[in-house]
Amino acid sequence: MAAEPANKPPEFVTVEIYDQLYHLAGNNAAHIQDLARQVDAKMRAVAAQGRTADSLRVAVLAALNLADELSQARSADPALGRARASSLSMLLDEALEDESKPGS
Asked: Which H/E stretch holds residue 67?
């Protein structure tokens, strides 16, 4: 995500992606919510076109679609592509950390 002052405490935000709640921390709650909306929309679009109800498969296909969009953005504007990759990578890391915690 965008660089924020090092002394700024993390914000906590709950987002819903594909009917699952994720409790995330970051320096910009609005940005996290926006990214979550994008991921949710992409997963729903993939699910609407596919024949699988398996949320893991939908997530992987959505990730591939987002990676393709990112690749195209990098080709058009490398700096924008790197920024988008960084944002998506951080969001994914936070979501995976949250999922690995007991009781998630």
From this structure: helix 55-76
